[in-house]
């Protein structure tokens, strides 16, 4: 579909598009509710071709590895790690294959999914007209006190699922016209995800994979995703380890780990460049959420990005910090940010020469 053009999104057009999509796919899909499908592979392939949003014969990174069997081997490598789980820097070493849970609280090797649906609140180059095909995975290995999705990440809201169903979700999102498969909080389920991509690729999945992570990752695991992930969407939350320890459950090494894995992500997929239609298919898209009282060390993060990555690296400076969950236990982060706090970060990013800034989130400050 080479004629998709990104419109300037007003709130009105956002709501209209969302309403159309809800009607199109049905509310049962939007709110999951144990939704189950078994898509016919022939049908899926046909529809996938119809919804080739790229118009350029785009081929996702994972397809080659699927064909050679390497994708399956990588999935098995990750699966074996579950026996003494070290999928993330917490390195709990619990046997998830025998039902044990670690810091993330994932129930052993059981997959739990909160919802899957076209999402129109993500970055514009991921949303386009068809939406970002978002799959919200339950539980989290970072557990921030201000998490916006705390009911999913920390209370475990979701439905037990399995790998075949995860593959079906991906195919379903492709069939209804999403531009990508956006895996939110994927780290503790990376083994399940690779297995599902392998199955879905065999049934016609051709959308880019978006790895939507907090950056609380192990370098060795991210290296195993080389050639599988098309778009990395990492947060860079904190510059200072005292802050990450305080607000993200003792994750003192977060800043150094985030720097390390973001560099690796860039090595794998490079600078994110949209297609002629404005849709992103490959590359690194960094997010940074500006926090009250500079709790994240925002200006230093902008400086590091400018000094260590190309100046046209995509950086979304997010303004939508909202005090929820346990953030009221910390007075310094128990409010929204001000316009001055936000502008200061944008100014520093520009001074440092960052030339691909997404500052659309600024409308939050004007509400
Ligand atoms: S994925 Fe979960 S169980 Fe595994 S090391 Fe990380 S927090 Fe621990």
Summarize the structure.
This protein is an alpha/beta fold and 367 residues long. Helix content is 38%, strand content 12%. It has helices spanning 11-25, 27-30, 41-50, 62-68, 70-81, 124-127, 150-153, 163-175, 190-202, 219-224, 241-247, 254-269, 298-308, 339-351, 363-366, and strands spanning 111-119, 132-137, 159-161, 181-184, 209-213, 231-234, 283-289, 314-318, 357-358.
Quickly list its features.
single chain, 367 residues, alpha/beta, TIM Barrel, nine-stranded mixed sheet, 15 helices, 38% helix, binds iron/sulfur cluster
Care to describe what's here?
The chain is α/β, with parallel strands linked by helices and 367 residues long. It is built from 15 helices and 9 strands. Strands 3-1-2-4-5-6-7-8-9 form a 9-stranded mixed beta sheet. Helix 14 (339-351) links the parallel strand 8 and strand 9. Mean pLDDT is 88; it is low at 1-55. Bound molecules: iron/sulfur cluster (SF4).
